What does this fold into?
Amino acid sequence: MPDSQRTTPWHIILLFLVVVAGGALAWWGATGSSRAQIEVGAACTQCGYAGKIMVGPTPSSEPWPRECPKCHQKHYYFAQRCPACGKLIPMKDPEADKFGSPRSCPWCKSRALNT
It folds into this structure.
């Protein structure tokens, strides 16, 4: 059979398709993760500044605390609104400088927190 009439073996085609699909998935994963950012409330336990910050889809798995944009200290935490007074409550462990759930609102002392 002449060389011009040879067909490409099926396993070569399959290998090519797997490599292309793997590359596409890797590219999509690398670029898709940058889009998975959400804006959440944040508050500083040092100076009281309250603002917004971009985080991944699971704020509790992010590194906390972060640098506060106002006082530049590492006391800036993900925050949730107090259902009683409406102020932002830093989600800080009351026993340590890390992410956690406070026992009560630092302003109104309500224990009805949405954690």
About this structure: The two ends are 73 Å apart (CA to CA).
